[in-house]
Specification:
Elements: H1 2-9, H2 20-26, H3 33-37, E1 65-73, E2 78-89, E3 92-103, E4 107-120, E5 123-136, E6 139-154, E7 158-165, E8 182-190, E9 198-209, E10 214-226, E11 230-239, E12 250-258, E13 261-268, E14 277-285
Antiparallel strand pairs: 1-2, 1-14, 2-3, 3-4, 4-5, 5-6, 6-7, 7-8, 8-9, 9-10, 10-11, 11-12, 12-13, 13-14
Helix pairs in contact: 1-2
């Protein structure tokens, strides 16, 4: 199942089946469909509302308001829905997001995230608080934690991102739900002006999951957008698999751009019995 693969991606073995669903919603390194097409390299992707799931500071370059929604399928009977909102108010950015996963109709979890970012020049930093409610059968667990993020964005040319997710693990001492940390640093470079017709971008990210070795991810985007209104952008990502990690080495994606709206599709191939994942989503900036 994709649930198991995502859990292993952050370096945690499943102590009990009851914990698997919750970990899949919390520990999705891709964050959004665009990040999934880049094999989880999302810490240095800035300007989209869904950035709060990979790096809270990624919403700092939102123009005014950004919205994002996504739907994806995992194993048969499993559905996941994601929504995010970001609002810029002078030097501050506010964000909120929710992720809902329903597995086989009875098992489900809901993750809520609230974000506050302060921006000073090209530097933005802040954090997110998160609350998770998980249920499998008659077993219910709740977890709380936080993410910290930093982003340095040089206009639309390049960005450096750093984030620590689930700082201190699960803060609820009465809960058995594991929330291990994930530290990540990444760099994104636009080789052409993204306000012009052509698009060409690369990103590199290093991830250190608690209890696991370092994972390296390389991603590329390229395409054409005519008059900054209509275009197609393709992407692909390659990631290493330390310690036999059940993550695909290659992922793919495509975006249809239409003025201020972007429609995303991403495909993550199955690995060693783990189901493939398809994601569809929409991003809107105002």
């Amino acid at each position: 199942m994709r649930v198991v693969a995502t859990t292993l991606a952050v370096g945690v073995g499943l102590a009990t089946p009851a914990l698997a669903i919750a970990q899949s919603a919390v520990f999705d390194p891709a964050g959004t469909g665009r990040g999934a097409g880049l094999n989880g390299a999302g810490v240095a992707l800035v300007g989209d509302a869904g950035a709060i799931f990979a790096n809270p500071a990624g919403i700092a370059t939102v123009r005014h308001i950004a919205l994002e929604g996504e739907y994806n399928t995992n194993a048969p009977g499993t559905r996941q829905y994601t929504g995010a909102f970001a609002w810029r108010l002078r030097q501050f950015d506010f964000g909120a997001g929710v992720r809902y996963l329903n597995d086989t109709g009875t098992d489900r979890d809901v993750l809520g995230v609230g974000t506050l970012i302060y921006r000073f020049g090209m530097i933005a930093f802040g954090g997110s608080g998160k609350v998770l409610r998980s249920r499998q059968g008659v077993i219910e667990e709740q977890g709380t934690s936080a993410d910290l993020g930093l982003a340095i964005a040089v206009f639309d040319i390049m960005a450096l991102g750093f984030a620590v997710q689930n700082v201190g693990g699960n803060w609820d001492d009465q809960s058995a739900l594991a929330m291990p940390g994930l530290t990540r640093v990444g760099f994104t470079m636009n080789y052409v002006d993204p306000q012009e017709t052509f698009r060409l971008l690369s990103t590199v990210e290093l991830q250190w999951a608690e209890g696991r070795g370092m994972r390296t991810v390389l991603g590329f985007e390229g395409g054409i957008v005519v008059a900054n209104a209509l275009g197609v952008i393709g992407r692909a990502g390659y990631g290493s698999r330390p310690d036999g990690l059940l993550q695909p080495r290659l992922t793919y994606g495509v975006t249809l751009a239409l003025t201020r709206a972007s429609f995303d599709y991403a495909f993550e191939p199955g690995v060693e019995g783990v189901s493939s994942v398809q994601r569809v989503g929409m991003r809107l900036t105002l």
